[in-house]
TrEMBL record:
SUPFAM superfamilies: PRTase-like. Residues 9-176 form the Orotate phosphoribosyltransferase-like domain. Residues 245-350 form the TRSP domain. This is Protein of uncharacterized function (DUF3706).
Amino acid sequence: MKKYEKEIFRLAKRYANKKRSYLLVNPWQAKHMPVSPTDALLMMNDLGCLTAQKYPSARLVIGFAETATAVGAIVAANLADDCFYVHTTRESLAGEYIEFSEEHSHAVEQKLPSATLSHITGTPVVLVDDEISTGKTMRNMVSVMRQDVAGLSRQDFAAVSLINRLDSDDEIRMEEAHIAHCELCRLENIDYESRVRGIPIEAAQTATGNFEQRSYRRYRAATRVSDVRKGEWAGLYYKQCRALAAEVLSYLSKQLAGLDSALIIGTEEFMYPALICGKLLEAREQFELVRCQATTRSPIGVCIDGDYPIYEGHSLHSFYENERQTYIYDLANYDAVIVVTDADGDKDLAMHDIMAAFGQRCDRFCLVEVAH
């Protein structure tokens, strides 16, 4: 298995966050920075293989929104086709759900539908996040589930992550909560607050420009994918995403003819289908460059000095709510930009912001709308 210590860790500074001033940015995660979708999926698959080796009987995987939704899907797929996958959400959720806090985050409250927890048939329950720093969020969630969900009071849990920074005291707290863990990369839990204190950051720019008259192609996919905010069997979800990607690429084949580069953008929690679309596009080898990333709710400071990871940022209207502010970072020149989203309603403001953020660096845009 590949060693990732020097490759999946970049230190950035959060913008206007008094709870935690730093952020560990993973260049391979296809979230804040553009990356080859094939490389991103290979890294996530390595974590999936590690999880399957350590916890082969697990049959319920819970991914954490918004950065670990794709990671969780791949971990579940590595366990078994009949492993049930669901991820937490900050979106509105119908029916009964449990709620817990991610206290250091820009968006604190997370929700998980209670009905999905009835699918537990194996042990442990696997919780997937991109990073575990103190384990407090995991312990908060497990405490709520053990208290509020019948049958979970004595259930074993395992925290699986790309990066683990638990110190010795945190390890003891996790053991006392009966939460095991495994990870791709173990980092020392040093004082990152002091390391980012002197970094001169700026806020992401508001996307501006007279792009209302520019057009973008809109494609409503016939293939539906399950809403894994409510949960789905891992094998079926993967097949749905593959079928969606094949349909989208069939449509785009004419639109992208003769082009050399393309960027696939997922939206907030909706990352995995965009990555699968990107991987299939990259496998065709008709492009010199295919990259994938996603919009995010996370406000990160921008700095052009040295090797700081976030050198450009733009604030956008969310694809899900016009009143919500989201962001996209580290843009580059592409021949085509394809946004893949499961958002309902009007998405014109968000698409116009995307086009404004790219300015003259791209003149061909497509919105792929996916239904559940």
